[in-house]
Amino acid sequence: MLKVGVLGAGHLGKIHLRLLNESKKYNFVGFHDTNKTHALAIEKEFGYPHYESIDKLLEKIDVIDIVTPTTYHYQTAIQAIKAGVHVFIEKPITSTVEEAEELIALAKYYNVKGQVGHVERFNPAFRAAIDKIDNPMFIESHRLAEFNPRGTDVPVVLDLMIHDIDAILSIVDSKVKSINASGVSIISETPDIANARIQFENGCVANLTASRISLKNMRKSRFFQRDAYVSVDFLEKVTEVVKMKDAPKEPDDFAMILQNAEGVKKQIYFDNPEVETNNAILDELETFATAIETNTSPIVTLEQGTEALKVAMQIIKAFDN
Q1: What CATH homologous superfamily does 121-279+311-318 map to?
Q2: Across 56-73, average pLDDT
Q3: What is the pLDDT of residue 123?
Q4: Confidence class for position 251, pLDDT limits 50, 70, 90
Q5: Would you say the CATH fold of 121-279+311-318 matches that of 2-112?
Q6: Residue 312: phi, psi to the nearest 5?
Q7: Is the CB of residue 82 less than 8 Å from the CB of residue 57?
Q8: DSSP state of 83
C-alpha cells in the first residue's frame, strides 16, 4: 500500500483525512497544518498523527494530498516533487498558469505523478453520461451556490466555474477559439457572479454561469448534440437523455412524434441511465493510487488541470474587456 500524508486540515482537508484513513488503497501516515492549535485539536479528536513540519512528513510518505488554500499549492507541490513524492493537488492546480507549467516540468524531471482534484469528473451522474455524449455543439452549464465566506478570496470562476470548465474540456475535442465573459462583484472584492461564452474551433459553444450568492443551489449541465440532448445534474446525481430518431411508419399509440415544416417525422425517446452511488472524493484519490501502482496516466493530469486554469484565467481577463 502507498503511504500517504495530507497538507491542510480545513473543511475539505478533514474530509480527505477521514477518507484516506479509511481507504484500502493507502496507508495513512499523518498530516501537517500550519495552524498548530487547530492541528493538535484534530489529532486529539480523531487520532490522526500530526507532523510539525512538511519535511518530516515527506520523509515518511509516497504520496502527498495537498488540500491547502490555492496560494500554497505551488510551493508545497514543488517541495514534495523535489522529494520524489507523488502529488495530488486540489483544484485549481495553482494560482497562476506559469506556476502550473513549472510543476508539470518538475514532475517530469523527478519522474513523479500528479493529479488535480477536479472531483466532478468522478460524479456518478457525469460518469453515467460520458458514453451518451457525442460531439456536442452547444453546452449550457449552471453552477449556483448559496453564499459561504469560504472561497471568496478568489473570483467565482476559480471557486466554482472551474469545475464545469474542466468537465467541458474533457468532453469537447477541440481547442478554444474565443472567450467572452462578464463578472459582477456583489459582496466580495472579486466577482461573485460570472457568465462566460466559450467558442471552440470545431464550432461548439459553451455557455457557463456561476454564482455564489444564489438563493438555491444548482449544479447542472446540458449537452446538445445532433438528435440528442443529455442533462447532467451534478447535485441531485441524475442523468437524463432525450433522443430523436426517424419515426416508424406505424408508431405506438403513446409515442411522442414531432413533425417539421417539411413533413419529416421524428420520434422522441427518453432514457435515464443508471447512476451508480459512489464517493467521488474517495474515487479520485484511489484512482490516483491505481495510476501510480500501474504506472498509467491519472484521470485528471497536471496538464489537464493547467488547461482548465488557462481557460479560467482567460475568462477573468475577459471581464475587463
Answers
A1: Dihydrodipicolinate Reductase; domain 2 (3.30.360.10)
A2: 96
A3: 98
A4: low
A5: no
A6: -60, -40
A7: no
A8: T
Cα 225 to Cα 43, 131, 242, 287, 319: the distances in Å are: 51, 13, 10, 30, 29
Q: Is the peptide bond before 92 cis (omega within 30 degrees of 0)?
A: yes
Torsion of CA 278, 284, 286, 288, to 10 degrees: 160
Task: Give the C-alpha separation, 66 to 64, whole Å.
Answer: 6
Among residues 196, 104, 189, 101, which one has the least CA distance to residue 143?
A: 196
pLDDT at residue 147, as a whole number: 83
What whole-number distance in Å separates Cα of residue 45 and Cα of residue 40?
Answer: 9
Beta strands in the chain (DSSP E): 2-7, 26-32, 63-66, 86-90, 114-117, 138-144, 176-184, 193-200, 205-211, 218-225, 228-233, 238-246, 256-259, 265-271
Q: What is the mean pLDDT of residues 3-19?
A: 97
State the Cα–Cα distance between residues 9 and 66, nearest whole angstrom: 10
Considering the entire predicted model, what is its pTM?
Answer: 0.92
Q: Are 289 and 2 in contact (CB under 8 A)?
A: yes
Checking 169-175 for CB contacts under 8 A at 24+ apart, the result is 169/304, 169/307, 169/308, 169/311, 170/121, 170/304, 171/130, 171/133, 171/136, 171/223, 172/136, 172/139, 172/200, 172/202, 172/204, 172/206, 173/135, 173/202, 174/200, 174/201, 174/202, 174/204, 175/200, 175/201
- Residue length of the chain: 321
The total of other beta-carbon atoms located within 10 Å of residue 35's CB is 12
Q: What residues does each domain of the chain span? A: 2-112, 121-279+311-318
Cell of residue 288, nine digits: 490516483
State yes or no: pLDDT of 248 exceeds 80: no
Count of CB atoms situated within 10 Å of the CB of 217: 11
CATH topology of domain 2-112: Rossmann fold (3.40.50)
The cell for 283 is: 474515487
The pLDDT, as a whole number, for residue 86 is 98
Q: Are 315 and 49 in contact (CB under 8 A)?
A: no
Residue at 116: amino acid letter: V
CB 237 within 8 A of CB 124: yes
Largest CA distance in the chain: 74
